[in-house]
Amino acid sequence: MNNSPNPEPNQVVETAEERKQRFLLEFDQPFKCDKCNERFKKKKYLREHKAEVHSY
Ligand SMILES: [Zn+2]
Predict the structure, then answer these.
(1) Max Cα-Cα span within the chain
(2) What angle do CA 15, 7, 13 make, to 5 degrees?
(3) pLDDT tens digits, residue range 5-32?
């Protein structure tokens, strides 16, 4: 009989604060480069980034 207070000790749980941060980031910068995962506020910035960095 083992009454541990933590049911899954090695399960990675995202805290409410981390979840909020991630939500805000995705909300604020919804355009993500599919090549390097960088995020941008505007589609225009993403297009400029692609033309500049991934122009091959
Ligand atoms: Zn990129």
Answers:
(1) 62
(2) 20
(3) 666 666 788 999 999 999 999 999 999 9
